Amino acid sequence: MKKDILEKGAILQRDRETYAIAPHIPGGLTDSATLRKICAVADRYGLQLKLTSAQRIMLIGIREDDLDRVWSELAEKPGAAIGLCVRSVKICPGTTYCKRGVQDSISLGLKIDDKYHAMVLPNKMKMGVSGCMVSCAESALKDIGIVATAKGWRILVGGNAGARPRLADLLTDVEADEERVLEVVDRIVSWYRGCGREVRLGRLVEEMGIDAFRQQILG
Ligand code: SF4
Fold first, then answer.
1. Can you say how many angstroms the Cα of residue 164 is from the centroid of all Cα atoms in its chain?
2. How much distance in Å is there from the Cα of 100 to the middle of ligand 1?
3. Range of the domain at 155
4. What is the pLDDT of residue 49?
5. Domain assignment present for 79
6. 130 within ligand 1 shell (Cβ under 6 A)
7. CATH number for the domain including 154?
């Protein structure tokens, strides 16, 4: 019986025959040349396209024999759409484009994406970076959620959607300093990598309580 092909980023579809793939589009920021290339490949192989919640474009309906050719013609890195790893870093437009933005979520989000996207972890991890408290990157539903405030950044932990949804807890507020945010994110990810459990981060935060978790991460 067919199943997902992790090493090709290929997700078996409902027909149990064809696959979908999703190239990595950091923060959903792309350009017309990339879109034309994706459309050309989709037309060549008769594929459907879907914009995903992870700010990617999924190409649907690929035959197993065509997977390598499709990836090669796209010439893009796979998005981490399956597997136990950092799946997606959702990034809102922030001060680059949005009139409500108070911090540069694109700058911070792309640095986080560059460092962590597809990193193998005990379970899947999603992150979101929002440029103001409106939180368009759904930061409160991410394992690590970051939200801009007038004074800096708010770091949330342990959120997730899914069958057992959970709103993230406030870990800490930090000043408007990307390096400081990256340092805290690094501490969370390092701790999670070595925690010896294979559950989502939210389960661990819930078991420990946010105060004990904060003590582990920030001392
Ligand atoms: S979270 Fe704020 S800055 Fe980001 S898109 Fe939404 S309103 Fe704009």
1. 19
2. 6
3. 86-218
4. 98
5. no
6. yes
7. 3.30.413.10
Mean pLDDT by 10 residues, the chain (219 residues): 95 98 98 98 98 97 98 96 94 98 98 97 98 98 98 98 96 98 98 97 98 97
Cβ 92 under 6 angstroms from ligand 1: yes
Q: Hey, whose CA ends up nearest to atom 3 of ligand 1?
A: 101
Number of other residues whose CB lies within 10 A of the CB of residue 133: 13
pLDDT at 123: 97
Closest-CA residue, ligand 1 atom 6, reads 136
In short, whether 145's Cβ falls inside 6 Å of ligand 1 is no
Measured in Å, residue 174 CA sits from the centre of ligand 1 at 19
Residue 158 confidence (pLDDT): 98
Whether 214 maps to a domain, the answer reads yes
Domain count across the chain: 2
Of 18, 41, 74, the last residue of a domain is 74
Establish whether residue 98 lines the binding site of ligand 1, counting it when its CB lies within 6 angstroms of any ligand atom: yes
Question: Which of 74, 103, 122 finishes a domain?
Answer: 74
pLDDT at 150: 97
For the Cβ of 94 lying below 6 angstroms from any atom of ligand 1, the answer is yes
Q: Is 109 in the pocket of ligand 1 (CB under 6 A)?
A: no
